[in-house]
Design a protein that fits this description.
Length: 176
């Protein structure tokens, strides 16, 4: 496009040069070029804005409290279910503790201490059973990703195991 314009400008210059008006014509060509440069410059922000708004699957519908997945409401009892927490501890030793400590210290991923206070139970259940879309959409997970530099892999948790891990996290956070 710009090449075509420049070509047009050049032939214009040659034609007018033949009329012995070189100086005036050169500045005319320059002005013409500037007009095109400006109009091209105006186009750029428009098209990039369109790209941003079509990126990903409608991030405006993402709920950062609930996350994304099948859990809308997770019922917790005030008192810890000890047997369930023990089951959760066993599962997490197989699938999670290679990357997560029970303290607030980061290993590969963030430490779990305080996670049940930072996050709603629905968020935790959705994240641990369905991490991929949440890593893409959740602003706080994206911030963690920048620190951890690893995407948490989907561990293929069964619902029951996910729920028992949540109970274990509550135990770590001091629920009795
Ligand atoms: C290969 C390492 C790895 C494994 C295994 C892993 N995670 Fe993660 N986890 C991460 C990383 C890294 C993050 C931070 C987010 C990101 O970068 O994807 C994270 C984030 C989390 C968070 C959010 C923590 C917060 O403070 O918001 C929870 C909850 C979580 N993981 C639970 C689990 C559970 C439950 C398991 C086991 C079933 C598990 N993770 C297994 C690496 C891992």
């Amino acid at each position: 496009m710009i090449n075509v314009i420049l070509l047009a400008c050049e032939s214009l210059e040659i034609r007018i040069t033949n009329n012995n008006q070189t100086i005036m014509n050169k500045s005319f060509v320059l002005a013409l070029t500037m007009v095109f440069a400006i109009s091209c410059g105006e186009k750029a922000p428009d098209s990039s804005a369109a790209e941003i708004s079509t990126e990903g699957a409608d991030p405006s519908s993402y709920d950062p409290n609930r996350g994304e997945g099948k859990y809308d409401h997770v019922e917790l009892s005030a008192v810890l279910d000890g047997a369930m927490a023990t089951k959760g501890e066993e599962v997490s030793e197989v699938k999670c503790t290679s990357c997560h400590k029970m303290t607030d210290e980061k290993l590969v991923g963030p430490g779990w201490k305080g996670v049940t206070e930072r996050r709603k139970p629905e968020w935790i259940m959705n994240f641990i059973t369905n991490p991929d879309p949440m890593i893409d959409k959740d602003p706080e997970v994206q911030a963690q990703l920048e620190i951890c530099l690893v995407r948490m892999p989907n561990q293929g948790l069964m619902d029951e195991d996910a729920r028992s891990i949540l109970e274990y996290m509550r135990k770590v956070d001091g629920v009795k």
